[in-house]
Give the backbone structure.
Amino acid sequence: MKRILMLVAIVSMCLGSNGFAEESEYKSFDKVTSSSRGYSTYPQQIFGLHVGMGISGYWDYPSNLGENDWLGMALDLGFVLKYQINHLFAVVPEFNFAVSMISRTVGHGSSLYSDYTKKESHTILSVGLPILFRYTPIEYFYAEAGLRLNINFHEQHSFEDVYDDDSFHNSGSSSVDPDWVVNTFVPALVLGVGGIIKTQSKEIELGVRFVLDVRRMEQGYREGSNYYEEGTVVDSHNPTKIFAVQFVFGYYFI
């Protein structure tokens, strides 16, 4: 009888210690899986670099100015701050230096020893300030929409003769028109989608973005007494706006 009671006591102690070990292991496992699922305290904010590059052209170009065959590139380079409200929504402001270079072919000609193509170009340098609202329905995909304010601080309107044979002529020479004037403040609509790559030390975003001005680009031309003198701005009532389709890249420091 004593042997039976002793055996029961030993078995009970073994089962109790085993159950305690299993409970501790379960709690530890639950803690690991909770952290691996990315449960976090919100709001969060991370800072990073932004690069955008793509094609650019003109929207709502007047038919009386000819065929809308303008095409060029739009380049953005700057900084981004992502303010994560919760796991679905974020506010993403950016600060970018932007370049828009758009050109078209306006004619062909011939001179001594070589034919040439005459090109017209518009270049605008600006500071871009987008404020975007980000929706992330799944962990590695996002959609975004918002407004961007372009602050234009330099514009250039030029004509250039590009020669087929540049051994006799310099194709790089161009005549600059100083009378072309663009609006300083031009707001734009921004729409985009993209994907997210996360590691322990960084977060990378790759996406596509569509940008469309909602105010006309051109203010008008200056009417002066000669080539070097600035005069009164003459409003040309040109409703042309700029659009761009860009591939965007974001690199965040976590």
In short: The first strand starts at residue 44 and ends at 59. The chain has two domains: 1-35, 43-253. The two ends are 67 Å apart (CA to CA).
